[in-house]
Amino acid sequence: LFCASCRNNGELLAGPFLYNESFPDALPMVSSIAPANHTVCSGSSTLCKLVSWWNKNCSNGSNDSAILMHQSDWLLWLLHGEYGVCDYNNTLKVGYDPEIGSYPSWLMSQPYSHMLPSSVRAPGVPIGPIKEDVRSQYGFSNDCVVCTGTTDSIAAFLAARTTDAGKAVTSLGSTLAIKLVSRVRVEDARFGVYSHRLDDQWLVGGASNSGGVVLRQLFSDDQLVTLSKDIDPSSPSPLDYYPLPKSGERFPVSDPDMEPRLEPRPDSDAEYLHGILESMARIEVIN
């Protein structure tokens, strides 16, 4: 997600964009300025979202005070009140280079560069004290400090307490993401692979568009609970699907035109759910 926000009063200028939402209209412009196969050279990158929004709303010089805010930037801003503060995990897909600790020159020369977070820090470092009105309203202590955030899948990785090179963590949320500890940085947009910095190591990963959002489209929460009880996990499903919420896949295949495969649908909803879950597991194995 990201928001376009006004520096002066925090007014939202656009609704949030989902991080797996694609903006192919901006991809030619982004690809023309970025190095070949850079992480931002994907229609779902934050930079493509920013460029698409800029072209439609700011190319005539209006909204000069607009800034880009990732979801954690927005939430933390509500707590500390400082504009333009972000972490180097969230800014990766807008073009920030965590290896050199700055935005590259090809990005800073663009007319929308003023919208980028101006203060990019390591995840989990102090930003400043919590705002007094928030502190008093919710009863936080006087020494409460707000720190920079990270992405959801990296938070899931950290919760797994895996630090050895070669170890990987898969997290299933709205999409299916994988992070693998590496001593070297690996990136290639052709295959949907990118690397986040983790202190002095790297998290090499990618994210499939398959995941919980597909289940939400097909079943209610109650149905998922009830139908799951009728699934025998020791018996493999004969169904072979590729569950996507709509056209487009990012990883392990980078194909914006890839179509979902959710047919044939058996008469039994439990068998259908079984087939979808096993198909997601196969995607995880490929990852």
UniProtKB/TrEMBL annotation:
Residues covered by region (Disordered): 230-268
Any one biological process term the GO annotation gives: xylulose metabolic process
GO terms, molecular function: D-ribulokinase activity; D-xylulokinase activity
Keyword Transferase part of the UniProt annotation: yes
Keyword terms of this UniProt record: Kinase, Transferase
Biased composition (Basic and acidic residues): 258-268
CDD domains reported for this sequence: ASKHA_NBD_FGGY_SePSK_AtXK1-like
GO cellular component, one term: cytosol
Keyword Transferase recorded: yes
Cross-referenced SUPFAM superfamilies: Actin-like ATPase domain
Gene3D superfamilies tied to this protein: 3.30.420.40
Bias kind Low complexity: ranges: 233-246
Domain of life: Eukaryota
Record family assignment: Belongs to the FGGY kinase family.
Protein name: Carbohydrate kinase FGGY C-terminal domain-containing protein
Organism lineage: Eukaryota, Viridiplantae, Streptophyta, Embryophyta, Tracheophyta
